[in-house]
Design goal:
single chain; mainly beta; six-stranded antiparallel β-sheet; 28 strands
């Protein structure tokens, strides 16, 4: 009976592991709270490839405990008591059980520990070439940010890799702290309301990356090439190094539903979507603009809205306590493809003096185009 009980417990543990590796939520030991054996470490450095449960490490990787000092600086651990730090030419790797052909978003937290321009490379093996995520700018006062990155699975078992390759410094330990790694299955073609003629995909932003419950800082969506898989299905983030912030109604005020996007990087980043249109069509782009109730006070807070057929500035007077307004842009489609663009015309920080970056919230976006009679004739 004891043996059977032990086998049953092992079976349950394996079932939980399989479910956790294939479902939405934190990866197995995604917060690094399951420690490596001390005999597999030299101080804080991890010396064996499989020392950290469920992870494979290469290069100079450290296992960091909350309160660890680097000179006069206390190293920030985003979640719980433990995290890893990636030194020069190092990586951490986690095996994922996924479904071939489906889309997924990975969320993880990163904190800088060095002065140089920090960035990490994220990739799926096998899969497309690595994507580079700039983490030099800290958007919150906590000392770390949560980032998202997306991919389409080419196999049923793949490996997710976070790599730090900066060799421009002398200290081999210098590099970012990584923590709180999670996954979410994306619906790359979110269903639309049957009564809606909205031409935009995911205009309400309800489909997006995993947000860790209880994390009050949202998730950053980094810049991407036009052929990259987006953590925000339907939308592209156009910038050199800056991001937009994906927020939820649990911690922020959002105009509609439970998710929205906050434009936190001013003129340096744009939220973009392209759709097929009939040249000469009469189009109306409607949207909500507001603030996230995070102390982002600005009068006015200016949102720039542009399409390939027209543009406008929308001024929203924000008291930082939440609220929104509806607005619209009417234009004539000029070609067979129309690009919709949102960006903040100003740079803002919260009024609490922490330097947390903030900006206008965009939500509930719809585009409706009606071909005019002469446009219909041209199509015949």
């Amino acid at each position: 009976m004891v043996l059977n009980g032990a086998l049953f417990l092992l079976f349950c543990a394996a079932a939980r592991a399989a479910a956790a590796s294939g479902g939405d939520g934190p990866l197995l030991n995604g917060n690094f709270e399951h420690k490596p054996n001390r005999c597999q470490m030299n101080g804080t450095r991890v010396m064996r490839a499989h020392a950290i449960p469920y992870w494979t490490v290469t290069g100079f990787v450290e296992y960091i405990e909350s309160g660890t000092m680097q000179g006069d600086m206390v190293l920030a651990v985003p979640e719980g008591k433990h995290a890893v730090r990636l030194g020069i030419e190092s990586s951490v790797q986690h095996e994922l059980r996924v479904t071939r052909g489906k889309y997924y978003s990975i969320t993880f937290s990163a904190a800088r520990t060095c002065a140089q321009d920090e960035k990490v490379n994220v990739s799926i093996v096998p899969g497309d070439p690595p994507g580079e995520l700039p983490i030099q700018t800290v958007y919150t006062s906590s000392g770390w940010d949560s980032y998202s990155w997306a991919f389409q699975a080419t196999q049923d078992v793949v490996s997710f890799v976070i790599h730090h390759g900066d060799d421009q410094v002398d200290d081999p330990a210098c590099g970012p702290i990584i923590d709180a790694v999670a996954i979410r299955t994306l619906n790359d073609d979110p269903p639309q309301d049957a009564s809606s003629s909205n031409m935009l995909k995911n205009g309400d932003f309800e489909e997006g990356p995993y947000i860790t419950p209880g994390s009050p800082w949202g998730v950053l969506v980094p810049p991407m090439d036009e052929d990259d898989v987006s953590p925000l299905p339907g939308w592209m983030i156009m910038s050199d190094t800056k991001v937009v912030k994906y927020i939820d109604s649990e911690h922020f005020r959002v105009p509609h539903g439970s998710r929205a996007v906050e434009l936190v990087a001013g003129l340096e980043v744009a939220l973009v979507q392209e759709v097929d249109t009939v040249p000469g069509s009469s189009c109306r782009l409607e949207f909500s603009v507001g603030d996230a109730a995070n102390g982002c006070v600005a009068s006015p807070m200016r949102l720039q809205v542009a399409t390939t057929g027209g543009s406008k500035s929308v001024d929203y007077s924000s008291t930082g306590t939440g609220g929104y307004a509806r607005d619209a842009l009417d234009f004539t489609a000029e070609g067979t493809r129309t690009r919709v663009v949102f960006y903040s015309a100003g740079y803002h920080t919260t009024s609490d003096g922490t330097g947390t970056l903030c900006g206008p919230v965009v939500d509930d976006v719809s585009l409706v185009c009606v071909p005019q009679p002469h446009a219909r004739r041209l199509l015949r």
